[in-house]
């Protein structure tokens, strides 16, 4: 779809908020047989803004805006500024009519949203083709965008609501996901096509990349996050069938405390890790598992691996030692994962179930609360501030 749908605005007051943005893709879904279902554009994609601060067990929908965004790419195409005034959403693909059927083409859109005035669209910035993963520095001054169809990374400066492309870095190998270290001096990005993680060195407005610094990880790396402590990074390796073959996949643990980042462990987590997040203090991480809930039934070779529900792997972190402690079923085809500010609640977006599972975190243990947020739309990405 070439034309961006005009925003629908709701008024809100966001003082002292704990905010979460959710991107919903209504252009397509997969049925229980694993077949792709394409929809016309009267099913509007949208972005939802939730406030978690007043009652984290019953988050309040504060605003909604109709904007094209996509399930394709890792579920990390959303971020919020440290002061929670500005939101950033990358749209990976646009929906077009081709040969009488719906199809998609790479987008180059990055939306800048005013979170103080009802999700008002401030500006649409042009980045590279098929932006697939973004990350904002802890100080909120640098935004990196991996452009999967262009083999580049866009670096943007942020000054309040003013956003400008500073640099475009050629990295090759289908970059899809990026994470900036807490000190803002390093970033890691995924080279999905060659099973590697690249390293960016950041010196003010100058960002450099040397392929000799690449790190070998697992098969099809598809998400990367750096601990708020800055000591380790985790990489979800989704596998060649993207979580639909029943075979377990891994999370690579990268030690960042030495001069040369290296993989110090591989942790088995389950089938198809995609969404990924750390809690507020880096003592826990969540790897979100497709778990055969996407399109396993569509292929006789993988139909045995079908599950109605996806799952999460709860990871305990002690230094650079990462241990899987729990496996919890959530909804169908889970994608994004967000903790609230103090890490006492966890939110998992389920694309096929069109809801968000709410989980409680207490003394290092995660448990289902039995509550969900019914969205009426399919969440493909989720994000918050650092």
In angstroms, what is the radius of gyration? Answer: 19 Å
How many individual domains? 1
Number-wise, the strands total 31
The 3D shape can be described as globular
> What portion of residues belong to β-strands?
over 45%
Low-confidence stretches: 1-15
Question: What would you say this structure looks like, in words?
Answer:
The protein has 386 residues and is mostly beta strands. The protein has one domain (19-380): Methylamine Dehydrogenase, Chain H (7 Propeller), CATH 2.130.10.10. It contains no helices and 31 strands. The protein has strands spanning 19-24, 28-30, 36-38, 46-51, 60-65, 78-80, 86-98, 101-114, 120-126, 131-136, 142-147, 152-159, 162-170, 175-180, 186-191, 196-203, 206-209, 215-216, 221-226, 232-237, 249-255, 262-270, 273-278, 284-289, 311-318, 321-329, 334-339, 345-350, 355-362, 365-374, 379-383. The strands form 8 sheets. Strands 14, 15, 16, 17 and 18 form a 5-stranded antiparallel beta sheet that branches. A hairpin with a 5-residue loop joins β19 and β20 (232-237). The radius of gyration is 19 Å and the shape is globular. It starts with 18 loop residues before the first strand and ends with a strand. The relative contact order is 0.14. The model is unreliable at 1-15 (pLDDT under 50).
């Amino acid at each position: 779809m070439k034309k961006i749908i005009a925003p629908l605005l709701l008024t809100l007051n966001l003082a002292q908020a704990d905010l979460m943005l959710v991107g919903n893709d209504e252009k397509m879904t997969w049925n229980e047989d694993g077949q792709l279902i394409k929809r016309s554009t009267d099913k509007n994609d949208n972005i939802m803004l939730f406030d978690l601060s007043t009652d984290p067990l019953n988050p309040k929908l504060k605003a909604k805006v109709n904007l094209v965004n996509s399930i394709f790419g890792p579920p990390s195409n959303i971020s919020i500024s440290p002061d929670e005034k500005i939101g950033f959403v990358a749209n990976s693909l646009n929906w077009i009519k081709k040969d009488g059927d719906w199809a998609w083409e790479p987008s180059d859109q990055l939306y800048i949203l005013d979170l103080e005035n009802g999700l008002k669209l401030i500006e649409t910035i042009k980045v590279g083709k098929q932006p697939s993963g973004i990350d904002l520095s802890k100080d909120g001054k640098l935004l990196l965008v991996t452009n999967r169809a262009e083999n580049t990374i866009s670096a943007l400066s942020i000054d309040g609501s003013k956003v400008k492309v500073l640099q475009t870095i050629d990295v090759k190998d289908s970059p899809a996901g990026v994470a900036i270290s807490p000190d803002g001096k390093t970033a890691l990005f995924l080279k999905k096509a060659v099973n590697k993680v690249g390293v960016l060195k950041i010196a003010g407005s100058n960002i450099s990349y040397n392929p000799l610094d690449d790190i070998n990880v697992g098969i099809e790396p598809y998400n990367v996050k750096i601990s708020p402590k800055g000591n380790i990074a985790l990489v979800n390796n989704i596998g060649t069938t993207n979580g639909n073959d029943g075979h377990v996949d891994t999370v690579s643990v990268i030690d960042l405390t030495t001069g040369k980042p290296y993989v110090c462990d591989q942790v088995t987590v389950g089938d198809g890790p995609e969404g990924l997040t750390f809690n507020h203090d880096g003592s826990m991480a969540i790897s979100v598992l497709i778990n055969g809930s996407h399109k396993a039934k569509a292929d006789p070779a993988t139909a045995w691996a079908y599950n109605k529900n996806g799952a999460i792997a709860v990871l305990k972190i002690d230094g650079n030692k990462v241990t899987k402690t729990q496996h919890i079923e959530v909804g169908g085809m889970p994608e994004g994962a967000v903790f609230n500010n103090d890490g006492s609640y966890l939110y998992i977006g389920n694309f096929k179930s069109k809801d968000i599972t709410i989980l409680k975190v207490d003394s290092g243990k995660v448990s289902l609360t039995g509550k969900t947020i019914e969205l009426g739309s399919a969440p493909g990405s989720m994000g918050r501030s650092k």
